[in-house]
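Trying the structure run again after the queue cleared.
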Amino acid sequence: MLNRKIYSELVEWKNQKNKKCLIIKGARQVGKTYAIRSFGEKNYSEVVEINFKETPSMMEIFSGDLDVDTLVLALRFRFPEKKINPESTLIFLDEIQECPEAITSLKFWTDDSRYDLIASGSMLGIDYNRPSSYPVGYVDYKKMYGLDFEEFLWALGVSPEMITGLEEMFLNRKAVPDAIHLQMMKYLRLYASLGGMPEVVEKYIETNDFREVDKIQKQLLEGYIYDIAHYATAEEKLKAEKCFSSLSRQLLDKENHKFQYKEIEKGARAQKYYSSIEWLLKADIIHLCKTVTDVKYDLDDYARHDFFRAYTNDLSLLIPMKDFSIKQHIIENTLSGNTKGGLYECVIADILIKKGYKLYFYKNETTRKELDFIIQKDGEVIPIEVKSGNTQSRSLNQFMKKGTVSKAYKLIDGNIGDNEDGIVSMPLYMAMFL
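Done. Tokens:
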């Protein structure tokens, strides 16, 4: 059983007064159904679960009047073994994007307030089957991803106390003992090769066999491509699939990781493909890291929409786009050049995105200054450099000397270093504490 952080968030939601219905958003196979089902079984006497994709006939419940008494009566007919009492029942509507009327009904469940209801779906950001009355203001949302690096460590048996000890070293800028540091770098490389999709992680724990893991990863990748074909409009299907399938070339095969349309096909232009990028973004299949023209708060004010990097929503989808042999090179730490640098950049992007950060980067083609990532928190802009070794960061040093920012991090394949001119050097795996 995988321990997921969202469980405690669901408990907090349950204990709220005057709570709204909750929608768990996220891409397919990130563990939404399992997490909600587990939460329901532990915190309610009964769970009434409807999966609209698995049982389309359940849509009939929502085909008539949407007042709560009528809906509960219909549920009792469908589930005669359930009492469906307000105090003890969780109603769980899975794959709710398949039933527009069920989405509309969330307004009435919230207004009624007697029943706890959680919905989940994997294509809620696109216009597929969009209902005419979307319950804006009547639902709360939580975003769910595959396992983040800390959850991944839990799955491997690393104790929370051990992680807390590492965090104290991070806060106190204290070097990590060599044996622990080397083991943590092995864990990071393992995370890079597996990703955080629950089925992938569980298969590795069960078999310790990378070929079995690779089968699961490829199945997941095929599932995402199927979703593109199923949910995208006829105009976008092929273009969106081409954009998605180009990501390994964009991120691992070249020095410049900016998304380039020429990697999709010769002579490709943004005019043809940008709508497909937007579709993939709304479908939670990719995440964008946009460039900024200046490193100042608020970064959104300086972001360019035509100059970006695109990352898969989980490393479990990026790695199977490459040959199986890449796993061995990752684990044995024999990657080099653009592939190694690109991979570590993807790992850090994965960690930061799952922590809830919007990502930006800076690149000046004239001065050649570049910052790998920029995040912001509490009104503060924080640059981050990612190094596959422990080399100099000239661009970052120049920014710090200008006084543009007060603090920056250099994530390295090495131990915690000295704080120089506001730049804190630390191991790549400590990105989970930023």
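The chain is about 40% helix and 20% strand. Worth checking whether this holds up in the mutant runs.
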